[in-house]
Amino acid sequence: MKIKFRISEIIGIVGAAIIIGSCTNPSQPNSDQMQNSVNKQPLNDLVFESGEKVNNSNFTGGTVWLKNLVDADSINQHAVGSVTFDPGARTKWHAHPAGQIILAIDGEGYYQEEGKNKVIVEKGEVMKCPSDVPHWHGASAHSHFVQVAITGREKGETVWLKEVTDEEYNK
Asked: How confident is the model at residue 47 (pLDDT cuts 50, 70, 90)?
């Protein structure tokens, strides 16, 4: 079953997330600025702060930060988060029962569905992850990658699978 989104729904969700993300105090260093001084990876002016460092086993190959922008609830069953991947960092193979949309907002990343070739994803591109299709995504080997992930939650939580091997990542 294919999930369809009206463009107005996507624009509304992303618009709200951008408004929320722009409400920071420019006189205070945000986590992106601190991250730049720590890993020396230049990040462009990001729309959202990089958020909190992810400390779970669903991401490998490097450091990942998550900024939850919108939590799913009974009115809107989509979660929206900004995810910042260091070069080489990636998700495990996983699937979303209600699908996912990835908006690439900075850097260069990879996206791969099970049984298909890896795709290079660049700033401004959109990936539509079909429901229940195992896939992975993350930064390329030489660049950070920042994505906004819009994940449907009405059919259940993300199903995490096995790690992406270095062989799969480098292929």
From this structure: confident
Report pTM: 0.74
Q: How far apart are CA 58 and CA 125, in angstroms?
A: 24
CB 131 within 8 A of CB 99: yes
